[in-house]
């Protein structure tokens, strides 16, 4: 009987070990030496977790589509519209077909990359690819309750960035399109990683500072276009109410 218990114990330990370390976690965080990253924190996160090639280079349409589906999971029409934009603007044909040469290519000014980013400097003022420490501190300080960010927190911060660019960047591109892109990015962030109309401060720090998925992240079942549109509309309205002049 004792021998049976010993054997059972060994088997149980083996099973537990296999469940923890026997099956490799394909989506652990790693940014290999020499890996290329770009101005979009969320795409950098996908690459750091292996949802996109960790190299950040030669990303095929199917790889980007699957990476988005596996994490963000928004409406297929929105996803395909995004893919169409990316590969029309930045795509190149290579041995594996149509590819995004690198995440860094997204830095081309005034295409999808834009002025008054929440975490990157305007192209005219500095580095549009890597997160700026001062802007990350502004983001850190933007939470009104110290624990979460609300739509109004983001509206206030986005307006602050716009005003800074208008005052300091003689080449600023401030158009309805660039403002829409900024507000749409925030709306997607809230929809994909938030809870209702808020997002945890730590989750934002994980994404923007560490470029990793938030702890205990769970993919949403589905991000409907209507939900994203409702968030975008509220953000746009609050931004206008806070600063009608912009």
Write the SSE topology:
Layout: H1 2-22, H2 41-48, E1 57-60, H3 61-71, H4 76-90, E2 92-94, E3 97-102, H5 133-141, E4 148-150, H6 151-168, H7 176-193, E5 198-200, H8 201-210, H9 225-242
Antiparallel strand pairs: 1-3, 2-3, 4-5
Helix pairs in contact: 3-4, 6-7, 6-9, 7-9
Concise overview:
The chain is mainly alpha-helical. Helices cover about 50% and strands about 10% of the residues.
Describe this structure in words.
It comes from Basidiobolus meristosporus CBS 931.73. There is one protein chain. This protein has 246 residues and is mostly helical. It has 2 domains: 34-113, no CATH class; 114-245, Chloroperoxidase-like (Chloroperoxidase). 52% of the residues lie in helices and 8% in strands. The chain is built from 9 helices and 5 strands; from the N terminus they run H-H-E-H-H-E-E-H-E-H-H-E-H-H. It has helices at residues 2-22, 41-48, 61-71, 76-90, 133-141, 151-168, 176-193, 201-210, 225-242, and strands at 57-60, 92-94, 97-102, 148-150, 198-200. The strands form 2 sheets. It has a 3-stranded antiparallel β-sheet. Strands 4-5 form a two-stranded antiparallel sheet. Strand 2 and strand 3 form a beta hairpin. The model is unreliable at 1-24 (pLDDT under 50).
């Amino acid at each position: 009987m004792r021998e049976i218990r010993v054997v059972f114990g060994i088997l149980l330990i083996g099973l537990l070990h296999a469940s923890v370390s026997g099956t490799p976690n394909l989506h652990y965080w790693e940014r290999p030496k020499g890996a290329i990253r770009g101005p979009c924190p969320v795409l950098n996160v996908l690459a750091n977790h292996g949802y996109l090639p960790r190299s950040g280079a030669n990303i095929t349409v199917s790889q980007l589509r699957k990476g988005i589906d596996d994490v963000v999971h928004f409406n297929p029409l929105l996803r395909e519209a995004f893919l169409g934009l990316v590969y029309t603007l930045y795509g190149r044909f290579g041995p594996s077909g149509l590819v995004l040469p690198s995440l860094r290519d997204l830095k081309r000014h005034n295409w999808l990359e834009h002025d008054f980013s929440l975490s990157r400097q305007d192209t005219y003022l500095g580095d549009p690819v890597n997160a700026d420490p001062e802007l990350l501190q502004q983001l850190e300080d933007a939470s009104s309750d110290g624990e979460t960010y609300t739509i109004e927190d983001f509206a206030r911060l986005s307006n602050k960035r716009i005003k800074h660019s208008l005052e300091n960047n003689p080449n600023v591109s401030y158009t309805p399109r660039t403002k829409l892109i900024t507000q749409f990015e925030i709306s997607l962030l809230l929809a994909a990683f938030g809870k209702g109309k808020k997002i945890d401060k730590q989750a934002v720090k994980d994404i923007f500072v560490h470029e990793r998925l938030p702890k205990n992240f769970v993919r949403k079942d589905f991000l409907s276009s209507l939900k994203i549109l409702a968030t975008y509309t509220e953000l746009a309205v609050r931004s206008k109410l806070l600063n009608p002049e912009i």
